[in-house]
Amino acid sequence: MKTERDEQFHQFVVSRRAALVRTATLLTAGDAHLAEDLVQSTLTKLYVAWPSFQRADNPDGYVRRTLVNALTDERRRWWRRSERPMAEVPDRVAAEDITGDVSDGLRAALRELPPRMRAALVFRYFYDLDVADTADALGCSEGTVKSQTARALDRLRTVLGSNPSLALL
After folding, report:
1. Longest Cα pair distance anywhere in the chain, in angstroms?
2. RNA polymerase sigma factor 70 region 4 type domain: from which residue to which, for each copy (predicted)?
3. Is-contact 120 133, C-beta < 8 A?
């Protein structure tokens, strides 16, 4: 028997899952499998904390923060550091490219950034959040967002400028 909470959560997932996967894919610099894992972790955490989520002053900020926390948790897992990803999994249908608007060169350059810097850029420039909302999503000060963004942009310029194949963005 579905409760009202279950129905509300179901409607949330139906309406927001695609956007969460897009954001997670950007945060993982194009790793679609990790992005799916992050979305699942985020949705699990949101379901458990559904009453808190519903009382949140800024539900979008709550979701972004949960997604970033899931990324941070994932990067801390000991087995993640020793995992060897494969380009293609045999006998499987290819995943849909959900970041067609982001070039391969930019994804490769984003991969060179630490996760927090990457998250700062994604929220500031892909989602056009202001510094305060980005700070809220990352759980840090506005000054940290500004410095992380500036450092990330400097690193991107260096990576893109030093590799001619990536400079064609």
Report:
1. 59
2. 106-156
3. no
Task: Bin 103: left if φ > 0, else alpha if -120 < ψ < 50, else beta.
Answer: beta
Rounded CA separation 104/20 (Å): 20
What is the spatial distance between Cα 28 and Cα 20, in angstroms, rounded to a whole number? 12
Which range among 34-43, 45-54, 121-130 shows the weakest confidence by mean pLDDT?
Answer: 121-130
Measure the CA–CA gap between 80 and 94, rounded to whole angstroms: 23
Judge contact between 56 and 62, C-beta under 8 A.
Answer: yes
Structure tokens, 76: 């801390």
Cα distance between residue 107 and residue 126, in whole Å: 13
What global pTM score does this model have?
Answer: 0.60
| Tokens standing for residue 55 | 């009382």
Single-letter residue type at 39: V
Question: Residue with structure tokens 């179901």?
Answer: 10
Distance between start and end Cα atoms, the chain? 51
Structure tokens at 9: 């959560």
pLDDT tens digits, residue range 61-104?
A: 899 999 988 888 877 665 554 555 566 655 544 444 444 445 77
